[in-house]
Structure formats: C-alpha cells, structure tokens
Specification:
The protein is α/β, with parallel strands linked by helices. The protein is 25% helix and 18% strand. A hairpin with an 8-residue loop joins strand 16 and strand 17.
Length: 385
C-alpha cells in the first residue's frame, strides 16, 4: 500500500491543436500540461481529467500512447512517464425532465477504448462533442445505466453549488427524484461545503465523499484533493477505495475551508453583500444567490447519526495566502519540490530558511486551520483576513 494524492476534476482549456474545449478555462490547460503540472509542482499521483470525450483530446491521448509517454495499465488508468496516473473522464450537463435541470455529473472509465465508446454514444446526444460539459436532454438514469454497463464510475458533481448541481437549484429534495441511488459511486462536495455539512443529509450517508479542484487553470489544480492508501495508482484501486472494498481507502479529504468558497453564504448577486431582507441594502439589487450553507440547512434531516468518515482537513492553497506571490512560490518549489510537500511536511523552521518568518507562520497557520477567514458568497471567494 502507498499514499497517493488525487484530484479527480480537472478541465481542459484547449486541445493540442489549440481548439477550445472548456471555453472559460486557460489556453495553456492542455492534457499534456495537466499531466506534467500534476507531478511537479503539484505533487499529485492521480488526476481525473473530465473532458476526455472531446475527439481531439482522444487524439492527443492516442499520440501519447504511440510515443510511449502514456501507457495503459492492466488494472485501468493510463500512466504518464511512470509518474502520474490519468483517469479519463467526462462531465455532462444533464437536463432531466424530472428536475428540469441542468445538473452536472461526472463519468470515469478505465481505458481509452471505453472512453472512445462513451464519446461515440455521447455524440448522438449532444450538440457539440468538442466542447466541455455539453447539455444532454435525457433522463439521468439512462446515462447512469450506460456508465455502469461500461464498468465506469458515476459521480454527481459539486452537488450543492447554486447553479447546475444536484441539490443546488432547489428543485429537488431527494437525489432519488433524479438518480438511481444504486448507480452512484461517490458524490463530489464542491468548494463551499465539507463533510460535516453534507452529513446533515441522511440520504448521503451511504456514499463516499470526494473533494476536487474543478480546475480551470494550471495553478488551481489540487485546490482540493484526497489522500488515499492504494495497492497501486490504478482505476481498479480507486474504484475499490470509493466503494470501501478491500484495503484500498480514502485516508483524508483536503478542501477549502467552506468560508473560502464563493457560494458559502447567501449574498447579493450584484455586489456580493451578505443578503438580508428582499433588497440589497448596499446596491439596491433584488437579485441574490442562495448560499450552500443555507441550502444544506433546508435539506438537513438530522434523523440518523452520520457514518465514520475520513478526516476532512481544511486546506488553504498557497496562492490564497496573502503576501505569497509568484516569485516567492517559485522559490519555495525550487527549494522544497512540490506543493504537497510544502503544505504537509515542511516545518516552520525550514520554511523560515527560504521566506520571511511572518510568511512561514502564515503557511503553518493555514496548515493548522488557524487563519481568520471572511466568508465568500454570491460568486465571490472568501478571503483570509
């Protein structure tokens, strides 16, 4: 068994030929750049790239296999330069007649051939297969059945965010209104919630929680992630960890303090002021965005004790820490290697050999959950104060 760090929700901004995939993502967020960045400077062992259905991304994967840079593993997953495992996936925007959607879901597959088969199936159900997160007008359970028939993983994405999520829009009160509960392998919490918050909803107690970055740029990779004990960094071992089978297991979830998430509290959609009443007292707007914390309160059942969970550790990414600019970050990477090493292992004394004592203390406080945070909301991230 070995400790592995995994971020399973990373977008592709452009193909290797420069065509857009996730239009809102960075242009340098290509598959190859993701795989190279994942190991250094991020220090990840497994990445789930969720735009692998795109035809030109499939072409790039085939090219990397041909060059020998990417090798398919017998137990599933593709190994890049024998350093990081790629789990090919797809994010789909389902417009289900039962919930009036849209909701985002994630599907992962063990092999390139399975991904190609799913891409061909999806091409008959979306308008533009080239682009990320295309809308599919079909019952979500049809999608679930296809994914499970192909021995894939099905995971509802960022389930509480106000837009395009299972619970977030406020239309459904139970996942059973939309999904087959037996065909869910895990649920993704999203940036504005954590394990304690999600476990207020009893129907989620049966599922493993995962925490991922939903990265739209290279620096945001590993903004959230999980640590796992795995026999090997393969698709099969990951699948067993999510299902709590055998010795493979999730050891801990690392995620933003929910206060740092941009949808934690209900806030004005125009100026992001915390919402009270019917009109924003600052800008006069009548438009507001319901916070994840308030939505979970609406859904909370509290009728049974939550199960034992891996620890959810509030993680403050290095680029959130005040005074830690690009040059200092590069200096830290050059000295200590990966972001995982800096966040988890390097002592305060060692940090002070490279950066100013005040900054070293901030990094350690972030590690220990001792920073004071102003809550985010309405689409604006929280801040360390």
């Amino acid at each position: 068994m070995s400790l592995c760090f995994a971020d399973l929700h990373i977008h592709i901004g452009r193909t290797y030929r420069g065509k857009p995939v996730k239009i809102t993502a960075a242009k340098n967020l290509t598959l190859t750049n993701i795989l190279e960045t994942a190991k250094f400077p991020k220090g990840l062992d497994i990445v789930g790239v969720i735009d692998c259905h795109s035809p030109e991304v499939i072409e790039e994967m085939e090219g990397l296999i041909k060059s020998g840079d990417l090798v398919e593993m017998e137990a599933g997953g593709l190994r890049f330069l024998d350093e990081v495992t790629l789990i090919p996936g797809s994010e789909i925007e389902v417009y289900d007649q039962h919930c009036h959607g849209p909701i985002h879901v994630l599907a992962y597959f063990p092999t390139l051939e399975a991904m190609k088969e799913f891409s061909a199936w999806l091409s008959k159900r979306v308008t533009n297969l080239q682009l990320s997160t295309q809308r599919m007008y079909e019952d979500a359970q049809v999608l679930q059945e296809k994914v499970k028939a192909m021995e894939g993983l099905f995971i509802p994405a960022h389930i509480f965010t106000p837009f395009k999520s299972l619970y977030g829009k406020g239309v459904i009160q139970s996942l059973t209104e939309v999904l087959n509960p037996d065909f869910i392998d895990a649920v993704e919490l999203g940036l504005s919630s954590n394990t304690e918050m999600a476990d207020k909803i009893a129907e989620l107690h049966d599922y493993t929680f995962i925490s991922n970055s939903d990265a739209h740029s290279l620096p945001k990779i590993a903004r959230e992630y999980q640590a796992l004990n795995l026999e090997a960094p393969t698709f099969q071992a990951l699948k067993e960890a999510l299902k709590n089978e055998g010795e493979n297991e999730i050891v801990a979830n690392y995620g933003l303090d929910p206060y740092l998430g941009k949808y934690y509290r209900t806030a004005c959609a125009q100026c992001f002021t915390p919402w009270s009443g019917h009109v924003c007292h600052v800008c006069g707007s009548e438009k507001w965005t319901k916070g994840v914390s308030e939505r979970i309160t609406e859904l909370a059942t509290n009728d049974e004790a939550p199960p034992h969970r891996p620890s959810y550790i509030h993680q403050v990414p290095l680029d959130f820490i005040p005074g830690l600019g690009p040059k200092t970050l590069e200096k830290l990477f050059n000295y200590f290697g990966t972001e995982m090493n800096i966040l988890h292992h390097v002592s305060e004394e060692e940090l002070m050999e490279v950066v100013k004592p005040a900054l070293a203390k901030l990094i350690v406080k972030a590690r220990n959950g001792e920073l004071v945070i102003s809550a985010g909301g309405g689409g604006k991230y929280g801040k360390i104060t």
